[in-house]
Amino acid sequence: MKKNLQTSSTKIWESYYNKSEFHDKWQGNQYPNEELIKFISNQRKNPYDKIRYFEDIKNDFSSKTNFKGNVLEFGFGGLANLLMLKDKGYDCFGLEVSKTSINRAHAYLKKEKIEDIKCKLWKPDTKIPFKDKKFNFIFGLQCIYYNLQLSNLIENIYERLENNGQFLFSFFSFKHEYNKYTDEIDKKRNLVKWSNDHPSFRIRGATLYQPKTENDLKSLFHRFKDLRVFLTESNQLPIFQSWWYISGRKR
Asked: Is the dihedral of CA 203, 207, 212, 213 positive or negative?
């Protein structure tokens, strides 16, 4: 059943991108995720100390740029996050389950003559490609919870990170309004499916992992150190949004 649910969700995302408006740039979000920008830009600062956090006078630009190493994004969608990270100095790699998204990404990168972003089609039940690479940073925003073998994937992420490498992933918090539109699939494993009355009709039927508490979320990443969960919320859109972001480092 798990394989069929995963296949169904992958088809939903392919349909999502395939039916999106075509234009000569790329599709999906046109701008990078704000929380990702803050996370990357402030990683040389101290996020736990109010005084030390602001001790970057006359160093406030250079501390946020000129990074080195490999980064990997799950579900890069419209390339916006990877383009931002490329400008920060990273060598970038991206994975997508949608053939349409991959094809459009390749076309855009070729047109713009961008060589330091590598993208591949990926099946969620397989290991991370780019076998000769280790990564300093691995992330996936508003996507990784659709992988129904999440524990196996997290183990693979641990293996592919450099020592002390970081990760950042986002999950729906229990306060997100989307949670009103779910059908329970497997209570023990926290699996739900977007119901047929979900306001975003393009994702109806997709199955995902939905942690009930922060502890549920942290338990997935128990092998890592420096675990931190932070919350972002907004009522700007018609749907109240509430996101958990979890970060940590390889031991």
From this structure: negative
